[in-house]
Design brief:
Elements: H1 2-20, E1 36-41, H2 55-59, E2 63-64, E3 72-76, E4 81-84, H3 91-94, H4 99-104, E5 118-119, E6 127-133, E7 137-145, E8 166-173, E9 179-184, E10 190-195, E11 208-209, E12 215-221, E13 233-241, H5 242-245, E14 258-266, E15 275-279, E16 294-299
Parallel strand pairs: 1-6, 1-16
Antiparallel strand pairs: 2-6, 3-4, 4-5, 6-7, 7-13, 8-9, 8-14, 9-10, 10-11, 12-13, 14-15, 14-16
Length: 300
């Protein structure tokens, strides 16, 4: 009994000693390696016209958009595929949506709880992203399935996420305290925001409109802002000058190392929610989790 008592005191003492360690000394699990998104080198000029017929797009890998991990409902071990539940937009984000969206959609929003679960990426309407680059620009091309294309914003530098479907690209250059938030819409409109402090609690009131030489173009395979019919998809292209990503960068300088997130707002009368999707997949449906952005890999 004496031996057991001594062992018990030793074990209890070890527990107390462990609990007494300062937080900085507690053993922490290693952080997961960031995802990587590959951009292919463009040997010829890329036309920003929304058509996606440039040779580089035929060879660039397609990165499918997915829902955030917080939308995971269960793990279907038999099928080996995750099962996702309804990706209902948060109350905070939903409050940002302009009433004009509901007007275009006939003012109807179905109950999220009635939506069926889906598999693999979890999205109801697929989105594929391709990236390319040359010495001057990063290029992004997307194909978004969309049965109801909605875009009420008719000017550049607007908060288009309040007004319908949007392609959003977030770029965080290495060594910078801030990051870019760039938009393209089915209307062919664009916005470029600069967030100065990625580590603090943010709101869109903290960002500044800043021109970065962004060029965009889009094409609709359907009719814009007409809820009575059904559309097929929309495509978009972006050209982002490398020299504009870093303040004071010289023309012809090497492309900066960046972290990247590509995301989508998908609105419309055919969806029971505003669907938020992304690549890479984030742990939460919050497009401002900069620490989880993928490493942009420029392949030549």
């Amino acid at each position: 009994m004496g031996v057991k008592a001594d062992l018990g005191r030793i074990a209890f003492g070890a527990i107390l000693a462990f609990r007494a360690l300062p937080a900085a000394e507690l053993p922490m699990p290693p952080a997961p390696a960031p995802a990587t998104i590959e951009a292919r080198y463009a040997k010829s000029a890329v036309s920003i016209d929304g058509v996606l017929d440039d040779p580089v797009w035929a060879n660039a890998p397609a990165h499918p958009l997915t829902l955030g991990s917080d939308r995971l409902v269960q793990d279907d071990a038999a099928a080996g595929e995750p099962v996702y539940g309804p990706p209902g937009i948060s109350a905070e984000a939903d409050s940002l949506l302009d009433d004009e969206i509901l007007g275009l959609a006939g003012g109807v929003r179905l109950a999220v709880a009635q939506a069926p679960v889906t598999r693999q990426t979890g999205v109801r309407e697929r989105g594929d992203v391709r990236l390319a680059w040359d010495e001057t620009c990063l290029y992004i091309a997307v194909v978004f399935e969309d049965s109801d294309i909605v875009a009420a914003g008719d000017a550049d530098q607007m908060h288009h996420y309040r007004m319908g479907d949007v392609l959003e690209v977030f770029l965080w250059p290495d060594g910078q305290s801030g990051y870019w938030e760039l938009y393209a819409t089915p209307h062919g409109r664009k916005t470029s925001f600069w967030h100065a402090e990625p580590t603090r609690v943010r709101s869109m009131a903290d960002c500044a409109v800043r021109d970065c030489g962004l060029r965009v173009a889009a094409r609709c395979q359907g009719t814009l802002n007409r809820r009575q019919d059904r559309d097929a998809s929309w495509t978009a292209e972006m050209a982002i000058p490398f020299a504009e990503l870093l303040p004071g960068a010289e023309a012809g300088a090497a492309p900066p190392r960046c972290r990247i997130l590509v995301a989508r707002y998908n609105c419309g009368v055919t969806l029971p929610w505003t669907e938020l999707s992304m690549v890479p997949r984030l742990s939460k449906t919050d497009f401002h989790l900069c620490g989880e952005y993928a490493v942009l890999k420029l392949v030549k």
